[in-house]
UniProtKB/TrEMBL annotation:
Extent of the signal sequence: 1-18
Xref: SUPFAM superfamilies: PEBP-like
Region feature Disordered, mapped onto this chain: 218-246
Positions of transmembrane segments: none
Protein name (record): PEBP-like protein
High-level lineage: Eukaryota, Fungi, Dikarya, Basidiomycota, Agaricomycotina
Record organism: Trametes coccinea (strain BRFM310)
Cross-referenced CDD domains: PEBP_euk (cd00866)
UniProt-listed InterPro entries: PEBP, PEBP-like_sf, PEBP_euk
Keywords linked to the UniProt accession: Signal
Length: 271
């Protein structure tokens, strides 16, 4: 039992490190969205004020995977709902409530996106836990409207773009949103920009995205509309961290590290 606790603590520590291990700027994300044609395919424009750091736990290796915008991930790497963190110099966002969405604009294939967008996640009632200037964890306080649906691009498809967007939640969201989307609404043929306009979400304050293709042994049909996603433009590449274009950087979350260290000390006291 103690060994299991130690393993859990070690994993927690690695996830905290992964939270802050990427080094990309707001401008890098903005440029990556443009290069991948997320603007205008999904959003009419994108002017983020913060960094959305996305961390998956690999379903097979148990290691954490930090998403750099435009990164290629395997289906094993993104099978589980990710942890998300917000870093911003706008401290007024610390007390806000957010809506997190994840969409696939390329279903069933990038060349024939007749089912797009697929709604992979729509989660309101999210709040920052920690300092937003150093990377606050975003925590769900209410059930998701559409719970996380793992990427499953169909056999024969090019890789799909999976886009995560963070919006400030308006005060009347819980009463207005069900008029357009609820738990029984089909996840296909969704339009995040139209939905944002209908419910007053405004423009996303942060975003991130990754690419995922079908497994080599995938047998699901290319006509599937359940979780198909599309490929980014051939010009898409992960955001560069070699030529910084903004002073905003993902920094170490001291509070999270302290909490993890305390937990490790607690576990070690029993060994």
């Amino acid at each position: 039992m103690f060994v299991q606790l130690l393993a859990i603590a070690t994993l927690a520590a690695s996830c905290v490190y992964a939270q802050n291990s990427t080094n990309f700027t707001v401008t890098d994300v903005e440029q990556a969205f443009q290069a991948a044609k997320i603007v205008p395919d999904v959003l009419p424009s994108f002017n983020p004020t913060g960094i959305l750091n996305v961390v998956f736990l690999d379903n097979t290796t148990g290691t954490s995977v930090n998403v750099t915008p435009g990164a290629n991930l395997t289906r094993e790497q993104n099978a589980l709902r990710p942890q998300v963190f917000l870093t911003t110099n706008d401290t007024s966002l610390a007390q806000q409530t957010f809506v997190l969405a994840m969409v696939d604009p390329d279903a069933p294939t990038p060349q024939n996106p007749t089912a797009a967008q697929i709604r992979h996640l729509l989660a309101p009632g999210i709040q920052a836990n920690g300092s937003v200037t150093s990377g606050a964890a975003l925590v769900n306080n209410t059930p998701a409207i559409s719970d996380f649906l793992r990427p499953t691009p169909p056999a024969g498809s090019d890789p799909h773009r999976y886009i995560l967007l963070l919006f400030v939640q308006p005060a009347n969201f819980t009463t207005v949103a069900p008029q357009f989307v609820n738990s029984s609404t089909p996840i296909s043929n969704f339009n995040i920009s139209l939905f944002a306009q209908e419910v007053g979400l405004g423009s996303p304050i942060a975003g991130n995205f990754f690419l995922t293709g079908p497994d080599a042994n995938s047998t699901n049909s290319t006509n599937s509309t359940s979780t198909a996603s599309g490929a980014a433009s051939s010009s898409t590449s992960p955001a560069s961290s070699n030529t910084p274009s903004s002073s905003m950087r993902v920094e170490i979350n001291v509070a999270s590290l302290t909490a993890t260290a305390a937990f490790l000390g607690f576990v070690m006291s029993f060994l």
